[in-house]
Write the structure tokens for this entry.
Amino acid sequence: MGKFYNKAAIIGCGAVGATIAYAMSIRSAVSHMVLIDINKEKAEGEVMDINHGMVNFSPIDIYCGDYSDVKDCDIIIVASGVGRKPGDTRLDLARNNINIIKSVAENIKPYYGDALILMVANPVDILTYVMAQELGISENKIFGTGTTLDTARFKYYLSEELELCINNVHGYVIGEHGDTQFPVESSINVAGQPLDEFCRANGKTVDIHAIAEKVKHAGAEVIKRKHATYYAIASSVCRIVDAIIKNEHAILTLSTVKCGAYGLSGLSIGLPCIVNADGISRVIPLNLNEKEQELLKLSAQTLKDILKGAAQ
């Protein structure tokens, strides 16, 4: 039996943090949940709104608190940060949110026990690395949502092309949660059958490059229409929390600083990881072809350049 996680903190109650809180509440993902935000009234309002509907699902204890409440938490979910404004570059976003995350880390430190820390705020790879450096905790205990959402989007678009249930389509998007992400074509399979074999046998053709580009810009397309994305990332967070709570040993593409299996260091990047009650058990070394190895190196270098630029 794995460890039972029964208390989570969500730091940051903007659209993403609040949606995560609601999604976790209706799933009764944990038995206790505390919401923490610099705008305490906003956090209080989210708690009230969720509690008013608690009669309709299995009740949990959800309340508004402060950083002292993380001392007995099992999972700390960090969704603090600002969104990219018109005209902002990724470097601008990184600089703005690095300062916020350093402040969050400083507030967590006096009360930190042994919790797993899940980073959600963007740019998630950069902020996961910064938080890991600031807290200095074990590498298995801190990770970001990474490319879990990108992988989910990829499976969705591919399943649409193949006219199949999404649960029968498998593959990973790895690298940066951003412009240099890419699907590992050699890992894509349909019900255990390599994609190219499935397509030949079933008279299907798919353009993986076109799907990858669609995935890469999916978030921007949602933002163009509704100004923010929060439902899909909240479901990704719930999936990660489930893997932890149930000690699943699930393989998810998380942003991890434990990337030595790929010859990388000094950053956090999205890679397939085995996740259980103790956090990241290990990183799965995929058999990348030469092109995929180069794409991963490019993605890693891009992240390092952003980290270097943000420090200047």
Summary: The chain has a mean pLDDT of 94. The longest helix spans residues 290-311. The chain has ten helices and 14 strands.
